[in-house]
Design a protein that fits this description.
two-stranded antiparallel ribbon, globular, MEDS domain-containing protein, Rossmann fold, 9 helices, about 45% helix, alpha/beta, MEDS_domain, seven-stranded parallel sheet
């Protein structure tokens, strides 16, 4: 099993990161200060995947799915066509969580059943796969810190066995107490962080704490 990157190995990527250069196995996180910033990053992640003929899986909250789908539509993408060509699979994060959370804790077997079926469908015709998951942010918003970290760990294990890139995102507003400790909890489960472009953003707490300017 791959060892998570140490502090000195971290890459501080700009918000307009060229997603095609993100490698399989990378587990990328963004801690964003507003929805527009996040949706622009997610839109770039999705459209770069579509243009590269990857299958893109998006597991997001209903408001974020609706906003993303509207941006895709306004940019000339047909959701029906993308779905028919197996280029875009979307799920509601709350509904997905309900399939594997048992007593407020991720059940590893049920989680594996869910994501394995998704990846099997996504890899049809030998397509490469990239995925965005917002289930962790939903758990984090509920202050279920242990469950959040456990779910990130399960994602890491699965990513390594299946070789696909995973993108996660957390709203900055969720880091209200002991921000340094909270940021380190989340960042330790990822291999790259995308900067929000805001020097006062909470993501910079991590960089400063480990000496990345």
């Amino acid at each position: 099993m791959k060892t998570l990157k140490t502090h000195n190995d971290w890459t501080k990527s700009p918000g307009n990161v060229f997603w095609a250069e993100i490698a399989p196995y990378d587990h990328v996180v963004q801690i964003y200060d507003n929805d527009e910033t996040f949706l622009n990053t997610l839109f770039a992640f999705v459209t770069d995947g579509i243009k590269s003929k990857d299958c893109v899986i998006v597991i997001a909250t209903k408001p974020h799915l609706e906003s993303l789908n509207e941006k895709l539509y306004q940019s000339g993408f047909s959701l029906d066509d993308l779905s028919a060509r197996n280029l875009y699979l979307s799920l509601d994060a709350e509904a997905a969580l309900s399939k594997f959370m048992v007593n407020d804790w991720p059940d590893a077997t049920l989680f594996l059943d869910l994501v394995s079926s998704l990846i099997a469908k996504a890899k049809k015709d030998n397509r490469r796969v990239r995925a965005f998951g917002e289930m962790v942010a939903v758990l984090w918003a509920r202050e279920q810190v242990g469950a959040t970290v456990r779910l990130e760990q399960l994602w890491n294990q699965f990513c390594e066995s299946q070789a696909f890139c995973l993108f996660c995102a957390y709203p900055q507003s969720g880091f209200t107490q002991d921000a340094v400790d909270s940021v380190l909890h989340i960042c330790s489960a990822h291999s790259k962080m995308i900067s929000t472009g805001n020097d006062r953003g909470i993501s910079d707490i991590y960089y400063k704490s480990v000496g990345i300017a």
